[in-house]
């Protein structure tokens, strides 16, 4: 007898023209398995049923019965979970199935006559094990950080970076559903749900803007988010959204005007005042800056000579001027005031006036012929203590016996003055007075420096 085979997606059916065939093909099963109860028999669509083609030519009393059985199946442990009633072809579930262990079964069902002449037929039975809703949804990350510009229009999607180039994807998964399918969970916000909304479907969800935001009013938002599958709820995750400032405000200065002092020793590039107002697009109202230049202590008092040498006679009286030292400091104000001090070499015989620089013999001192002194004199300006400048000079003194023929002396070695071009002829420019120890008459003469005879010195 010729046997015909009919194949399709889920079954292979053997047909015998004079015997029986499967009713409905392919056979398929799809059911939701509740691990807490056993639902039997399992519903198979279409029902497992083999039809005897000899039924029209045989009386019912002569028709043999049809026996059903599971011939083979995958995985090999199928027999632990399923059995097939041989006469009714009802599929029985023997024990609960864990979808985490098995996702589907493929069984081959055999039907044969109960008369010693099997003439079997076969069909494939595909069983899909659906997951029970026994696991809560979950988010892929515990914290989301998004960014939105305060100038963004309503409906704008929150971005994942400050450049606003990539949308912030929120992915909530449910192990009860395959990762490639939309889990259809509902995501809710615990706060600010009038300002932000989550797209309702899709594997990746997105936050969108419902109401305008203002960086100056609230620079950031923080809230929690949960996902629910209708039965179970995820652990909450944190969402932080930073509102990026847009150029919607005019820059302003804290003050209308500024006053400051600038010192003369400031170097090019040194910061005088830092002011911030322009944002590159909008411009502030102008402000006034008043700068006062203050002299810095950047000059050292300087003696005209590195050293001085002079003779002092034994008949010099205490208080008589031996020498007046003058150090010049180009600074102005207190920084330019110079004071003097003998540092060493005076042997307790000489003193110097702090302010005039005049060196005199101390009272009660008897000068000895042939004795010599080397006075170290320091000139110091009056700048701040940490910035004071100074220089030194040496005064060499030789003690000589009284000399009745000693020349007259000026109290100062150098005189300096300025003459206005408007000075009238005959006006007095400087009063110089020399002294002579013997009190002899003194005459005055301009020796050099006035080739055109512009100046004249009087004899009185």
From TrEMBL:
Q: Which UniProt keywords apply?
A: Calcium, Cell adhesion, Membrane, Repeat, Transmembrane, Transmembrane helix
Q: Which GO terms describe its biological process?
A: anatomical structure morphogenesis; homophilic cell adhesion via plasma membrane adhesion molecules
Q: Which InterPro entries match?
A: Cadherin-domain_protein, Cadherin-like_dom, Cadherin-like_sf, Cadherin_CS
| GO CC terms, sorted | cell-cell junction; plasma membrane
The UniProt entry lists the main location of this chain as: membrane
Q: List the Gene Ontology MF annotations in alphabetical order.
A: calcium ion binding
Q: Which Pfam families match?
A: Cadherin
Location of the protein in the cell: Membrane
List residues of the Cadherin domain: 48-139, 140-253, 273-303, 304-410
PANTHER family on file: DESMOGLEIN FAMILY MEMBER, NEURAL-CADHERIN
Q: What is this protein called?
A: Protocadherin-15-like isoform X2
